[in-house]
Design a protein that fits this description.
single chain; 539 residues; mainly alpha; two-stranded parallel sheet; 21 helices; 10 strands
């Protein structure tokens, strides 16, 4: 059985069933999502609480609203049109860096019952008090790489994250024999290209389980390989003569630099990012207001990355979109099932060596399939056929396969409705940013069925925030990056989290500068980190 289904909200009961009981509830067991469970760091709240005082700032509460949200979500599937290019120009690797970052800062827990069955006829927004009280963040909400480091070096052989002195333990791949096809190990790759794993077990919950700080990073092969790169990057710093603490601090700081100056400035407006860095957080300041994870960020704005996912990837020489004999693409579905977390690693103890990633294919926007999709109101068809980690259709609590459970866009819209996320227009007004007009929304919508749903639901004037962020990107940038509302929300929260993080590069008067070499002097990007880790060719 799968340990956790992709995209599921997590409850304490689900974690216990997966053999992952939270330490603060059962000190005798290690947690699967361990690092920091201080009560003051676990809360979610509204970034704009004042908007909750006026019903006009949220979607109307009615069965008709639910019906039209479903209609809108179902219209967001991309039929595979070739009329216009689908590429954003953002290298494809940043889709999965965004997911890695999300796993480092959030894991929504506590609302699994309310969010489990989105097809029930009495679906209605939850009371504000219930939202604040019930939703908990099961991650340490800081850019500290606790998903990589866990609780730090330990002599405990059962420690969640295994260490070898100052170094992190790295797993070996399984070499395939010559009779097995596809069988080619990508050139230049060594044995140490898998996550550390437990041994085989008759218990599905721990069978070849990755020994990492957040098990979700083994639900997708690309994210798993990115997590591996961070393990190798830390060890490379130790090899350069740094002890554990110094290597950890250096990697955290360069990671934070990548978040702000590489990832954020690709997906958001660089001028908005720079303004928040230089002038300070005006909207989200955990130091001043007290920590909370903004609902508008987690349940709406940061989900923009869903539109960036492609159906197929040029993963390596064995799994690519070249059409060469003996190869086939690495589909989105395959990437999310070929993992030990999904019990789909096959008859191998570790990742077979023909599945080592070739990062150069995902960082070169000029390569076929090398870029992320545009940030707009179309999602790849695979996201309308969601399956659990075993590749089986998602079901509701009664075991029924329903369209709603399988449509990511529908689920995003209904989840936002359930937790009273304010409309895009209300958020734009709170930010002092001119809102899109109904005409602009219609023109930027991806299809006539979307326009029909927007009109029927009254969503041209009261637009669900997640959809608004996407349609604003399409209207203002042609889908190349986020628009002003989306950019402000994402940058405010991520810069705010960097400011409150341990070893933050934004603390103090002196501006922090990268000390590790980059392809361009004075900066350090995600490809630079991959080169430092020895998983991307180059010096």
């Amino acid at each position: 059985m799968p340990r956790l289904s992709h995209g599921a909200n997590i409850s304490l009961n689900a974690l216990e069933a997966a053999g992952a009981v939270i330490a603060s509830h059962n000190p005798a067991m290690r947690a699967a999502f361990p690092p920091t469970f201080r009560s003051d760091l676990q809360g979610f709240d509204f970034l704009f609480p004042q908007l909750q005082q006026d019903a006009a700032n949220v979607l109307p509460e009615s069965p008709q609203t639910v019906q039209h949200l479903r209609q809108l979500g179902e219209a967001m599937g991309d039929p595979g049109s070739t009329v216009e290019p689908q590429d954003s120009g953002i290298p494809a690797v940043y889709t999965y860096f965004g997911q890695f970052l999300d796993h480092d800062i959030t894991l929504e827990g506590g609302l699994s019952d309310a969010l489990a069955d989105l097809s029930r006829p009495d679906l209605a927004p939850l009371p504000q008090a219930d939202i604040r009280a019930a939703i908990r963040n099961l991650r340490s909400a800081a850019t500290d790489l606790d998903s990589v480091y866990g609780t730090g070096p330990s002599n405990d052989p059962n420690a969640l994250v295994p260490y070898d002195g100052d170094k992190l333990v790295i797993g070996k791949v399984t070499p395939l024999n010559v009779q097995q096809k596809p069988r080619l190990r990508p050139p230049g790759k060594d044995d140490f290209n898998d996550l550390p794993r437990k041994a085989r077990s008759s218990l599905a919950a721990i069978d070849r389980e990755a020994r990492i700080g957040d098990h979700r990073n083994d639900e997708n092969v690309i994210v798993a390989q990115l997590h591996l790169a961070f393990l190798r990057a830390h060890n490379a710093l130790v090899d350069q003569g740094n002890n554990f603490k110094k290597a950890q601090r250096l990697l955290r700081q360069h990671y934070q630099h990548i978040i702000i100056h590489d990832f954020l400035k690709r997906v958001a407006d660089p001028a908005i990012v720079d303004r928040i860095i230089d002038d300070g957080n005006q909207l989200y300041d955990p130091e001043r207001r007290g920590f909370f994870m903004p609902l508008e960020f987690s349940f709406a704005a940061y989900r923009f990355g869903h539109t960036m996912a492609r159906d197929e990837y040029d993963y390596n020489l064995n799994f690519n979109i070249s059409g060469e004999p003996g190869t086939f693409p690495a589909s989105f579905a395959l990437l999310f099932t070929f993992t030990a977390l999904s019990s789909q690693i096959g008859d191998f103890d570790t990742l077979p060596d023909n599945w080592i990633i070739e990062w150069e294919n995902l960082i070169d926007a000029a390569k076929p399939g090398g870029t992320a999709r545009r940030i707009d109101t179309k999602l790849a068809p695979e996201l309308f056929n969601l399956r659990n980690a075993l590749g089986e259709p998602l079901t509701d609590p009664q075991g029924r396969v329903t369209q709603i459970m399988r449509h990511l866009a529908v689920r995003n819209l209904l989840r936002g409705y359930l937790v009273r996320i304010p409309t895009g227009q209300a958020v734009a007004g709170a930010l002092g940013i001119p809102a899109l007009t109904p005409q602009e929304i219609e023109q930027a919508a991806a299809s006539q069925p979307q326009v029909d749903a927007l009109r029927a639901g009254g969503f041209l004037e009261q637009t669900p925030l997640w959809y608004y962020v996407l349609v604003e990107a399409a209207a203002r940038t042609g889908g190349k990056r986020l628009g002003p509302v989306g950019s402000t929300l994402i940058a405010e929260v991520l810069v705010g989290l960097v400011r409150r993080s341990e070893d933050s590069i934004l603390k103090g008067q002196r501006r922090w500068k990268p000390s590790l070499p980059g392809a361009q002097r004075g900066t350090f990007t995600l490809p630079d980190l991959l080169r430092h880790a020895g998983v991307l060719p180059g010096t």
